[in-house]
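Reply to dn_fold:

You asked what the input looked like. This is it:
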Amino acid sequence: MLGEFPIVWITFEDHHLPVQVRLEAYTPLIPLNAEDSGLPGVYLTYTVSNASHEPVDVSIVGSILNPVGGSEIGQFGHPHVPQGGTNRNVRRESDGLAGLYLHSERYTPEDLRYGDLSLAVMDDPATCKPVWRRGSWAHEALEEFWNDFSVDGRLEDLEIDTPSGDGKTDTGSVAVASTLAPGESRDFRFVLAWYFPNRINGWNENARVRRAGRETIRNQYATRFDSSWEVARYLAEHRDRLERGTRAYHDALFQSTLPAFVIDAVASNVAALRSTTCFWLEDGRFLGWEGCFDDAGCCPGTCTHVWNYAQTTAFLFPELERRMRRTELLDETEPDGKMNFRALKIFESVWDHEAAADGQLGTVMRVYREWRLSGDDSFLRAMWPSVQAALRYAVEYWDTDNDLVLDGRQHNTYDIEFYGPNPLTGVFFLGALRSAEEIARYLRDADAAQRYSAAFARSAERLDALCWNGGVLRAATRRCRRLSVPARHGLSV
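and this is what came back:
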């Protein structure tokens, strides 16, 4: 396997076969195009090469379990859906696609478990076995499938047209066949798409809207599509464009002159945006956990001091980053300037905690960054009143002796409280002041610009006096001398 996010290649090895097989898989990722980078689907392309001196008949088959209702595997290998059933696997064909549409008749469109999947072949005739044989033994279904497929690489439809029973579900398969001449290669192109539009209207059971008619909310992609089959059709219709954009991003990064370990670190961290760490709602809000456990998100609220570290969204999908600033400053900042560093208020929950100094001040800097990257003046003007309120709060609540250096009780990203002057929140405050000064100058608010400029100068001088006496520098120089390293190296470090 070779992974270069967002693309993965898998080379299959079997020296007994006369063919060579390689899989390429990816979901489109195109910077500055958030909608097409958030598609609920993946391209699966199997490239098969005939390495023999004779023609070879080749078939690729994809099998998939209908998981709607929450699938589990029992002790004896039986797939079942304890809370579900009445699942259907249906053959569909349209616009160059042929495959299976997997759904359930049990759930209404508003149910959290409502949804469907599609597995289809692109641009090739396909044979399908929508439903594997039903019976009391799981291995019977597998044996019948394999006996059918292995004869000629094609599938027979058993014509089971009833839904699965309560607590039960079905597996289905799609196959495409071809004959390859000696030395010939060809691509077998599949697409897998999913559509599970609903989620709870909140972060979790402890922070969600519980009023009738508002308990669920949809994912953003549900505003564009009505089913996974629609997603599959979109992926098929726009494949050339989506592939060009994805490869252009991949090549720009992986063919750059950056060191390999830097490229790997950058590419790998982009994956977080498309993991369960983040979610994008139908009303435009883009939100994220601090991370994820195996079965749930960890630490809700797009925590301001944690997301301070993030750079990926701002540069790849700036519209989503601006939406996070709107949530933080327009929805989660109180009239007195206190910013809830976890966005829970938007889900009618309460975050009764003191503000986070580094998160609040970092958000001010990020407003400036988002404006510089986008040139969106309407965004800047909308944020400006709350930016000023957030800075006023910082002075009133964290500067106890009016010297423009934060010295009060300062909650921060270490999940502790700082007391007294310190470089972390002190420098965040300086960055926020400079950002506010630049914003004020652009908005022609000369009085505000002058105030922030004077505050920055006074705060910087005082912070230097309180936090820096040259002792660390002299200690570094002495250590370099003991190690027989030129002192200038220690100074540069």
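The radius of gyration is 29 Å.
Hope that clears it up.
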